[in-house]
Gem-associated protein 2 (Cardiocondyla obscurior), 240 residues
Amino acid sequence: MDYLKQPVFTVGDIDEDINLSLPPSSGEEYIKRVIVEARQCADVVVANLDPSCMKNPTKAYVETLAGCIQAPASLGPTKEWQQYQVADFSKLRLYISQLKDEIVIGKRKWRPPNIDLPDINDQTGWLDFCLDNEKKIEPTLNTLFCFNQSNVEQILEYLVQFVDSKRTIEYKIGQWLYALLVILEQPLQPDTCSCLRSLARACSIIRADSRELDAQELGALNLFICLVARYFRQLDLADP
């Protein structure tokens, strides 16, 4: 490795008193100027800063959202119940994923149903599509397979916003939420992860409300908190 220390070319004698204010007359003189300037530089340089010119640290403008509200003693699910729900949900996701793969490779035939889907940016249209009892559109696989992942993520966001604002989960919206979670692909996009966390928090707020909850609604609230926390790995939101 000694050859790396050998000079590439010789620049000759260097005049330390060279006038650096004048332009170099040749390439060799330019190299000599560089060497002279390098020798004049200190090995360590310390900058004198004026503390008065420095800005005070600004506070973070994004506030950390709180986690889930702890369930009242009589309303929280058991650990065994949560484990069962996660296992059942995982099996269902695997089964549906296999069905979709069979459709893609042509092993299973599927024809899109004749339904009119709202524009993806039409939030009101999608809420009517999912929740209007007169239209009688159910979240069947035949319907769900019409959605790409962008549709799934956007519709899920619309429904979570609805739950968060209305502070209730009716049976039909629970059906749609569960169905969309089943076909939601991983890894999650940051916005989708935030959406799921909002769903879990909204469910915990509804559950902690003083009003009476029937068994069906309580089960749905506990289920969505469980799936978001334990299946989608938002463990800080999990019930104990």
Observations:
- Residues 59-64 have pLDDT under 50 and may be disordered.
- The CA atoms of residues 17 and 134 lie 95 Å apart.
- The longest helix spans residues 79-104.
